[in-house]
Amino acid sequence: MGLDQAVRRLSPESFALIQKWEAGDHEDPYPEVEEEQMWTGRKENHIQCYIEGEVGEVENCAYLPLQREHIERLVERLRQVKYDHDLAGSLLPTQAGFFFGGTDYDEWYFNDVDEELMEFQKILESWDDSSVYVYWAWW
């Protein structure tokens, strides 16, 4: 078990179906919608901390809408931490949690930051204003 995370892109219609299902009594089956995985993470608790601090409360297995500005700020923080490791604790702090993984600012953390910087830059490069972007986490 662990913290599994994703940023997904959906059509507005698909997102509306999911919102309707989430607000209901869940007697209907989960709606089948097309969605595109833009990023996936595993135990990237600093991303979880950023999302909770900058976007809003993350509920287990629920979709939290993201704006382009959220990803732009995240990319800027990732860039700053990549070039100045001393900023990690203040810009992208780790977050403890059941099955959330390690909280050390070590080689693994900084390797993740490097990869995430490239991946989130790709999200910005392919951003589509007619789509809905969401953060999703399961723990």
Notes on the protein architecture:
The chain is α+β, with helices and mostly antiparallel strands and 139 residues long. It has one domain (4-138). It is built from five helices and four strands, in the order E-H-E-H-E-H-H-H-E. The chain has a four-stranded antiparallel β-sheet with strand order 2-1-4-3. 23% of the residues are buried. The model has no long low-confidence stretch (mean pLDDT 94).
What tags apply to this protein structure?
139 residues, alpha+beta, 4-stranded antiparallel beta sheet, 44% helix, globular
Number of helices: 5
Shape: globular
Helix-strand pattern: EHEHEHHHE
Helix proportion of residues, in percent? 40-55%
Low-confidence stretches: none
Number of strands: 4
Largest beta sheet: what is the strand line-up? 2-1-4-3
What structural class is derived from the secondary structure elements? alpha+beta
Query: What Rg is obtained from the alpha carbons, in whole angstroms?
Result: 15 Å
Q: Proportion of β residues? A: 15-25%
Topology:
Layout: E1 4-10, H1 12-23, E2 35-42, H2 45-54, E3 64-66, H3 68-83, H4 88-91, H5 107-125, E4 132-138
Antiparallel strand pairs: 1-2, 1-4, 3-4
Helix pairs in contact: 3-5
